[in-house]
């Protein structure tokens, strides 16, 4: 008779982890891991700073483009304002007034505002005094006439108002 050598079958659960033998990592390995962690953090910070700089540069470029375009178009608006003042035919005048109103609405929609100067105290940050005169009943330093309207873009003066100031 022959003897058969039977070995018992062992079921292994695929979801159970195999025993892990923990060994203390070498000092060099820990230092290298720390170094790579620091490198990753610096790289992430550099990327965040680059992204912020790029966004700021893009925003400034857009603002500069808007300001340059508006400054090129303001003389057209000035001429339309002069046309409104000089046209005597009422229907023609109303047409030009509607164009000026639409022009001003577009400027407002992009953040450009006219500077209110008439009868306001003179402010060299917003006004460019080209004349001064003594005016009865008006105290010194008050804007008494506006020759050219000034404009701001998001609180930044892009063209000061050209004014006459009382002495």
Count of domains: 2
CATH class of the largest domain: Alpha Beta
Mean pLDDT: 88
- Tell me the strand percentage band: 15-25%
Reported for the largest beta sheet, the result is: 3 strands, antiparallel
Strand order of the largest sheet: 1-4-5
Number of strands: 6
Mass-distribution shape: elongated
The oligomeric status of these chains comes to: single chain
Cα end-to-end separation: 134 Å
Structural write-up:
The protein is an alpha+beta fold. It has 2 domains: 29-110, Hemagglutinin Ectodomain, Chain B; 113-167, Head domain of nucleotide exchange factor GrpE (Nucleotide Exchange Factor Grpe, Chain A, domain 2), CATH 2.30.22. 48% of the residues lie in helices and 17% in strands. The chain has 2 helices and 6 strands, in the order ααββββββ. It has helices at 27-86, 90-109, and strands spanning 112-114, 127-133, 143-148, 151-153, 156-159, 161-166. A 3-stranded antiparallel sheet has the order 1-4-5. The radius of gyration is 38 Å and the shape is elongated. The mean pLDDT is 88.
